[in-house]
Every structure is written in structure tokens, then in C-alpha cells.
């Protein structure tokens, strides 16, 4: 998985949306204490920066050293490069001690994980019974009727053949992803709960976002340029002017607590 994002790490850091503050306020309201959060697959730190405003300490881990080079530096965030598979001893060395973590977050990356192995680690590090896990994903942005029409045709006809099968879990807004945790206090299910991230971007930022996807990079590695001049021209016409527009990303979170597992 890390290899898919290695070559476009700079574009990913630049173009990927941040998350709404309300999302992390909601998540944090479900953890009784705010001492330590572990952000797994932290990438360039989009989620870690929000956690740092609420939690005393944040550990952000990623299997891609290149992604971590572009991570947002904050005094209470420690970034750690980790191997794709970690033993419990490595989890303790690189992340935290058993039963010491208030919150585990995974933003736009849970669908890449070996879930049984990862969930064992989550159950091991989280405080019992109220430690919380929150898996976040976002789907394609909505800009305008004209831009969305060009994008949707591109997504279905051009981009889709290059997605990894795991992408289907994101397209389903994590509804079908395995998530064996108890509902948090005040909820009768584990989600997904929906939020919206609004990002102001110009056309170049928007095209950079498109180029930052793993499917685009997979095609490029095969010598295929998915965003040719003809398609770029279609986006220019649909965009309609040289100024910025507001892109609305639907954001979804699955959230649960570890209980006495």
C-alpha cells in the first residue's frame, strides 16, 4: 500500500482535504480522557493536526517514510515510521504500552489494512472498556453540476479500472467494512456517521487532487496518462472561470469502543 503513495507524496500532502473540526469534536466527546491518541496511516498528518488540538499527545504512524516527510510538525505529535506488519513488541516500542491509548484513528486508510491483525493491536493498546477506535473515510468531492458531470464520467470510464479492489469499501462509505466493536456511549450503532469537509480550491488544486489518487499513480506506472489535455480542457470549460470554487467532500466515520474485549 505504501508504494502506491510513494511517488505522489508531495501532491497528496498538498491536495488532500483536511477534515472538519466538528468530526474530531464528535470523536473526542466519546473518549473519557484525552491523554494519548494513535493516528494510524497518518500520511501527511491531516488527521493528526486536529487530534493535537484536543489530545495531550499524539502518535502518528505510517509505513511510508516519504509521506511522513511532508507531515505537519507539531510539538505534541510524534511521527513514527513503522513496518507493514508489527509484532506486539514492536507496537509497544513504536506506539505505546498495553492499555494506554484513549483513541485510535485511521483516516482514509483502514481499507488497506490486514484487519484481523490490526484489530488485535487496537484491542491491545486501547484502554478498557472505554478506549475508542474511529475509522474515517471521505468520498469524491462535489463542486458544481458541470464539474461533477465531467468528474463522474472520468471516475467511471477512465479511473475505475485502475483502482485496487479495496476502493469498493470507500465507495460504500465503510458501511460494509468489518468493524467488530461496541457502539460508543449515546449511540446504538457504529455508523457510518456523516460530516462534510468544505475546501476552497482553484482548478489547478482540483486537478492536483485528481492526480494524487492511487489509481492515477497505478495507471502512470503502466505508462498511461489518465488526465490528458482533452480531459483537462473539459474540466476548464466546466469550471467556468479562473477563480476558486468550494469543493464539498462527504466524510464518514465508523466509531466504536473496545469494551472488555
TrEMBL record:
Residue runs in coiled coils: none
Gene Ontology molecular function: S-adenosylmethionine-dependent methyltransferase activity
Cross-referenced Pfam families: Methyltransf_11
Superkingdom, natural source: Eukaryota
Domain Methyltransferase type: 39-128
SUPFAM superfamilies hit by this protein: S-adenosyl-L-methionine-dependent methyltransferases (SSF53335)
PANTHER family recorded: OS01G0307686 PROTEIN
Name of the protein described by the UniProt record: Methyltransferase type 11 domain-containing protein
Amino acid at each position: 500500500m505504501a508504494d502506491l503513495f510513494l511517488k505522489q507524496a508531495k501532491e497528496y500532502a498538498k491536495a488532500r482535504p483536511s477534515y472538519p473540526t466538528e468530526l474530531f469534536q464528535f470523536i473526542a466527546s466519546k473518549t473519557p480522557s484525552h491523554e494519548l491518541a494513535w493516528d494510524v496511516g497518518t500520511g501527511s498528518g491531516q488527521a493528526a493536526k486536529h487530534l493535537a488540538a484536543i489530545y495531550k499527545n499524539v502518535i502518528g504512524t505510517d509505513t511510508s517514510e516519504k509521506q511522513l516527510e511532508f507531515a505537519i510538525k507539531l510539538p505534541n505529535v510524534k511521527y513514527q515510521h513503522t513496518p507493514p506488519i508489527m509484532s506486539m513488541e514492536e507496537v509497544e516500542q513504536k506506539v505505546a504500552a498495553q492499555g494506554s491509548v484513549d483513541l485510535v484513528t485511521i483516516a482514509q486508510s483502514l481499507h488497506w489494512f490486514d484487519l484481523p491483525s490490526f484489530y488485535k493491536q487496537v484491542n491491545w493498546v486501547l484502554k478498557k472498556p472505554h478506549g475508542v477506535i474511529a475509522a474515517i473515510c471521505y468520498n469524491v468531492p462535489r463542486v458544481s453540476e458541470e464539474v461533477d458531470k465531467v468528474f463522474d464520467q472520468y471516475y467511471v470510464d477512465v479511473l475505475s479500472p485502475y483502482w485496487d479492489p479495496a476502493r469498493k469499501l470507500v465507495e460504500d462509505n465503510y458501511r460494509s467494512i468489518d468493524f467488530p466493536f461496541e457502539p460508543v456511549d449515546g449511540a446504538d450503532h457504529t455508523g457510518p456517521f456523516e460530516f462534510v469537509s468544505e475546501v476552497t480550491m482553484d482548478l489547478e488544486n482540483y486537478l492536483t487532487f485528481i492526480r494524487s489518487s492511487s489509481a492515477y499513480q497505478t495507471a502512470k506506472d503502466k505508462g498511461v496518462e489518465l488526465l490528458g489535455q482533452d480531459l483537462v480542457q473539459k474540466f476548464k470549460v466546466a469550471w467556468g472561470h479562473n477563480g476558486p470554487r468550494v469543493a464539498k467532500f462527504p466524510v464518514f466515520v465508523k466509531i466504536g469502543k473496545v469494551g472488555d474485549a
